[in-house]
Automatic annotation (TrEMBL):
Name of the protein in its database record: cysteine desulfurase
Cofactor: pyridoxal 5'-phosphate
Aminotransferase class V domain location: 4-366
Family classification: Belongs to the class-V pyridoxal-phosphate-dependent aminotransferase family. NifS/IscS subfamily.
Species assigned in the record: Piscibacillus halophilus
EC number: 2.8.1.7
Organismal lineage: Bacteria, Bacillati, Bacillota, Bacilli, Bacillales
Length: 384
């Protein structure tokens, strides 16, 4: 049985070029980049070059890149750091109902500490309205955190319009760009983004590393205390091995981004076409148009199916996908993203699957996936 991995939004395999670079680093560059001797200086050079690569990838300054252990830490530093640094100016934060839990849980904690949080709604396509952002702004608003691309639906938010609006008001704008970084061209100057989060393992790099972009002049309250690493914004010896792997993943991404984008689009379109050919009933959660959705994430609702049983059967048939929602104690919780889009009583909360494509997937695999879905749907429907 051919196993097909379609859960790249959860994590990607490490690119062969990244593996090769990391093997070389393990052999030749083990020094602490804070040490002043030869071995430390070698590691420092690698770290500096990686920081420049990351900065160039989003049109940022070298000093604006803060290496972290991944997207969650970067989000936490951006949100808590900004909130605490600006508490003397106000205590109002704006976000949306569809954020990743690495954003929702920090702002929920800030609510417990006395901050006032506004959760903006989204429409049935999963998009926030710029007018809702504008209406929610107050004199005491000190942070707006709205994701670039939703991890469950792939829907893109109007970050440029939000950035322009907030820059004119002098309000810091943070965006979780973990799902956007490997697909979208990002220019933080053009988009007027003040804080931006990325993660290596979403772009064929190693797990356990990411970065936070912080616009020059923006103040944060330090969250980790210890050494002077990352200009004191993030104490702790830098993970030079993972950072070097991340750097290579970014370099490969720069070379292949357009090719990958076109390939993802072809895969997404073929899966939809193959399901139509098999007369499988489905509904698209979000928007099929790549004007509003990244092509590597496709969220589909299958009427009459139970997501937990469906996922199990897909796995047994060799197809690895996700519901896009949290798995807790052996059960799958209803997606908070789909709940925000369709309401808590919608059957889509219990019958939706996220397909997320990768560079190694093939068009032929999409035909196979549709065939296996058809068999599962027919079998499960006949048992009802």
């Amino acid at each position: 049985m051919k196993r097909i991995y379609l859960d790249h939004a959860a994590t990607t395999p490490i690119h062969p070029s990244v593996k090769e670079v990391m093997r070389d680093v393990m052999e030749d560059s083990f020094g602490n980049p804070s040490s002043i001797h030869h071995f430390g200086r070698e590691s420092r050079k690698r770290l500096d070059e990686a920081r420049m690569t990351m900065a160039n990838s989003i049109n940022a300054n070298y000093e604006s890149i803060i290496f972290t252990s991944g997207g969650t830490e970067a989000n936490n530093l951006a949100i808590f750091g900004t909130a605490y640094a600006n508490r003397n100016k106000g205590n109002h934060i704006i976000t949306t109902n569809i954020e990743h839990h690495a954003v929702l849980h920090p702002v929920e904690q800030l609510e417990k500490e006395g901050f006032d949080v506004t959760y903006l709604p989204v429409d049935e396509k999963g998009m926030v309205d710029i007018m809702d952002v504008k209406k929610a702004l107050r004199k005491d608003t000190i942070l707006v955190t709205i994701m670039y691309v939703n991890n469950e639906t792939g829907m893109k938010q109007p970050v440029q319009m939000i950035g322009n609006l907030l820059r004119s008001r002098g309000i810091p704008f943070h965006t979780d760009a973990v799902q956007a970084y490997g697909v979208e061209e990002i220019d933080v100057e053009e988009l007027k983004i003040d804080l931006l989060t990325t993660s290596s393992h979403k772009i064929y790099g190693p797990k356990g590393v990411g970065f936070l972009y912080k616009r020059e002049g923006l103040n944060l309250t330090q969250r980790l205390y210890g050494g002077e690493q990352e200009r004191t914004w993030r104490s702790g010896t830098e993970n030079t091995l993972a950072i070097e792997g991340f750097k290579k993943a970014v370099e490969v991404l720069k070379e292949e981004r357009t090719k990958r984008y076109d390939h993802y689009k072809q895969l997404s379109e073929r899966l939809i076409q193959a399901l139509d050919e098999k007369n499988v009933e489905y509904h698209i959660n979000g928007d099929l148009s790549t004007e509003h959705r990244v092509p590597n994430i496709l969220n589909l609702s299958f009427p009459g199916m139970d997501v937990e049983i469906f996922l199990t059967n897909l796995d047994l048939s060799g197809v690895a996908v996700s519901s896009g929602s949290a798995c807790t104690a052996g059960s799958i919780d209803p997606s908070h993203v789909l709940k925000a889009m369709y309401g808590e009583d919608s059957p889509r909360l219990r019958n939706s699957i996220r397909f997320s494509f990768g560079m190694d997937n093939t068009v032929e695999e999409m035909t196979l996936v549709a065939e296996r879905i058809e068999k599962i749907v027919n079998r499960l429907s006949s048992n009802v």
